[in-house]
Every structure is written in structure tokens, then in C-alpha cells.
Specification:
Blueprint lengths: L1 H24 L36 H7 L3 E8 L10 H7 L8 E9 L5 E5 H4 L4 E5 L5 E3 L1 E6 L4 E5 L21 E6 L7 E12 L10 E4 L11 E3 L5 E8 L10 E5 H14 L5 E2 L2 E5 L2 H6 L8 E6 L4 H5 L6 E5 L2 E2 L3 H9 L7 E7 L2 E7 L2 E2 L12
Antiparallel strand pairs: 1-2, 1-4, 2-3, 3-7, 4-5, 6-7, 8-9, 8-11, 9-10, 10-13, 11-12, 12-13, 14-21, 15-16, 16-17, 17-18, 17-19, 19-20
């Protein structure tokens, strides 16, 4: 037993001595971390150390985003809770108690500053029935907005804020867009903050979607989500091409099918509202239908481009001008029309009381008819429908 203890003591002594010698003469052997490199070798791009000087990629849309983004604002709306009639009934309160006031309804959307005077383009459904409207700029400034006017038939609204030094977007020519052009959608989706998404123009002149009365949408696959409504659709130069309005979705999120109101339409509506306080449109009093082969045969007119008139309002502008059922309208004020949506838009663009021309096809050939349009009245909203 003593021999084992002596052997153990000698072994420990030798190990301690060896450790002392190594720690004194070669301490680096004990610090294994010192053998590792202190800097991880990586490969850096020439611009990594100076991002500000980095040149954009040849296909980058950085310039467009930087140009347009400051003029795109977030819009926060609130609506006071509706007072329930039963809440003031003493018998209702006796049986059900005091229900109190409901919670105010909050909404969000986007808008585009189009003038240094503080005018903002947005969608009517963003601010519809709102009691308070707050605009938040990209630089953090906030302002209460005044509603200058709305046009439910195109789903557009004009707001105004009283701030100085406002960034303003440049209005582009939406009529010059082509399918395949690159575009950016800028807005405030889901209230997360300003977001830029990219895509292309998927289609032009989309109609009969059941969204607005007057439809001439730009379709894009740039991601548009709830909160983007009223935001900007811009081209590669950052010029405003449209106001983002709606999406086709089965889930509530983007599925690559979004719609924007062209700048040409938005500009006309804005000018009319600022000038007259409302949009005045023409009306002629007809019941049109798209010209199908069957209708052409029934009315004995040549099939092709145009819109057939199946009904004429008695004593209306069209009736007074001699338009009758079976006429095929091919042009309105020298503007060609090939479907009902185009006819509706062309007639709406006419000035009430100012004579215009209609080109029509009849059994006995082509005729040019002069017509004096009346004033279109805004249709009354249906029950349960706020538009």
C-alpha cells in the first residue's frame, strides 16, 4: 500500500513539474486559441468598404425607388364607433346592462404627393367614411388631411395637407406604357412601413372587373397587398404611371395580379375636383351591349368592331339625336370604341351641353350623328354597399 501511494505521489510531482516548465518556457502551447487566425479571410467586392460609392447594377431600379419613394405617404384613418339605438333604451339597458361605446374603426392605406401645394392622390375606399385622416410622410412628419373631393366611380380621392418642403412625384405618361415594361409598386402594406416591390406591366386596359364604374386598369405582377391601396406605380425613371387600387386574391395577399388606375385618368379626375369640386361626366341615355355575332345577325348589321345599342331612353340625348336600337356605335368624338367599357368612358369624357359626334353603322351604311350629351348623375349606392 505504501509503495502504491509513493508511486502516485511521484507521478503527480512529475506532472506538476512538467506543467510548470511548459507554462514558463512555452506558454503558447497551453493557449490553443492563439493558434487560430484572429481575422477570418473573406473575399470582398471593391465597393464593400464604401457602400455610398457603389455603382448600381445595370438592371437596378435603385434610382427609380429613391426618386419616387419620398413622395409616397402612409394614410391612417379612424371612424368613430356607431351608436346603437338600443343602448339608449332603458329596458335594453335593464336586461343587457350598459354596453358602452364600441371601439373606433381604424384603417390604413397609401397616397402620393403630386403638388408642392400639398395635394395627395389616393383611393376613395381608403378614406371613405373616415372621421379623421392622418398622413405620415416618409421623413416622419405627420399632418391631418383635408378631403378636397372624391370620385367613387373611379375610386379616386384628393386630399390636402398643410406642410412645407414637400417631396413631389413626377407625373408620367401612362398612355405610353407597354406590356412588359418594368414598374415598381410603392406603398405601406399591412402597416409595416414603406415597401417597394417590382414587376412588369402584365396587361393594359383591363375592364369589366366589377371594381369601379369606369375601368381602364393597368395590370401588374408587382406585389400589391392590403395597405398598398392609393400608393404609387412608377416606371424605371420613378415617374408616376398609376395609383395602385386592387388585387385579385383568394387568400387576401398578393398573387401577382394587381390593378392600378392610370395616371391619365387620375389627372383628369384631380383637375376636375380641384377646379369644380366634383367630376362632371357626359350621358346620352342608351343601353349598350358588346357586339356579338348573334346580335349582329339579329339586327342585320355587319359584325366587327363597335358596340350595339339595344335600348334608347325616350326623350334622352340619344333619342333626340336619332339614335335607335340596332345602331352600332364605332366612334365617339372620333375616338374608336370596341366594347361597352370603352363606350361608357368615351361618353363620360364628353362635356354636357357641348355637341359631339357619334359614328354609327346601320343597315343602309355608315352615318355620322351629332348629339348633345346631358349630365350624368351619380348612381345612388345600393343598400349595404358604401359605393
Amino acid at each position: 500500500m505504501k509503495r502504491l501511494w509513493l508511486l502516485f505521489a511521484q507521478t503527480v510531482t512529475v506532472l506538476v513539474a512538467a506543467l510548470f516548465v511548459v507554462a514558463t518556457l512555452k506558454p503558447a502551447w497551453l493557449d490553443r486559441r492563439s493558434a487560430l487566425p484572429t481575422v477570418v479571410p473573406v473575399i470582398e467586392s471593391p465597393d464593400a468598404r464604401d457602400p455610398a460609392a457603389a455603382a448600381p447594377a445595370t438592371n437596378s431600379l435603385r434610382a427609380a425607388a429613391q426618386s419616387a419613394s419620398p413622395a409616397v405617404v402612409s394614410i391612417n384613418t379612424s371612424k368613430a364607433p356607431e351608436n346603437q339605438a338600443q343602448s339608449s333604451d332603458p329596458w335594453f339597458r335593464f336586461f343587457f346592462g350598459d354596453q358602452g361605446q364600441g371601439q373606433p374603426q381604424a384603417g390604413l392605406g397609401s397616397g402620393v404627393i403630386v403638388s408642392e401645394a400639398g395635394y395627395i392622390l389616393t383611393n376613395n375606399h381608403v378614406i371613405e367614411e373616415a372621421d379623421q385622416i392622418e398622413v405620415v410622410l416618409n421623413d416622419g412628419r405627420k399632418s391631418t388631411a383635408q378631403v378636397i373631393g372624391t370620385d367613387p366611380e373611379t375610386d379616386l380621392a384628393i386630399l390636402k395637407i398643410n406642410l412645407t418642403g414637400l417631396p413631389v412625384i413626377t407625373l408620367g405618361n401612362s398612355d405610353a406604357l407597354s406590356i412588359g415594361d418594368q414598374v415598381l409598386a410603392i406603398g405601406n402594406p399591412f402597416g409595416v412601413g414603406q415597401t417597394v416591390t417590382s414587376g412588369i406591366v402584365s396587361a393594359l386596359g383591363r375592364t369589366q372587373l366589377g371594381i369601379n364604374t369606369f375601368e381602364n386598369f393597368i395590370q401588374t405582377d408587382a406585389a400589391i397587398n392590403p395597405g398598398n391601396s392609393g400608393g404609387a406605380l412608377v416606371d424605371i425613371r420613378g415617374h408616376l404611371m398609376g395609383i395602385n387600387t386592387a388585387i385579385y386574391s383568394r387568400s387576401g395577399g398578393s398573387m401577382g395580379i394587381g390593378f392600378a388606375i392610370p395616371t391619365s385618368t387620375a389627372r383628369n379626375v384631380m383637375d376636375a375636383i380641384v377646379r369644380d369640386g366634383k367630376v362632371t361626366r357626359g350621358w346620352i341615355g342608351v343601353e349598350p351591349q358588346d357586339l356579338t355575332t348573334e346580335l349582329a345577325e339579329n339586327f342585320s348589321v355587319p359584325s366587327g368592331t363597335g358596340v350595339i345599342i339595344t335600348g334608347v331612353l325616350q326623350n334622352g340625348p340619344a333619342a333626340q339625336a336619332g339614335i335607335r336600337p340596332g345602331d352600332v356605335v364605332t366612334h365617339v368624338a372620333d375616338k374608336p370604341v370596341s366594347n361597352v367599357a370603352q363606350l361608357l368612358s368615351a361618353v363620360a369624357a364628353l362635356q354636357p351641353g357641348i355637341p359631339a359626334t357619334l359614328d354609327v353603322l346601320r343597315k343602309d351604311g355608315k352615318q355620322r350623328v351629332q348629339i348633345t350629351p346631358g349630365k350624368r348623375n351619380l348612381p345612388r349606392p345600393q343598400a349595404g354597399n358604401s359605393r
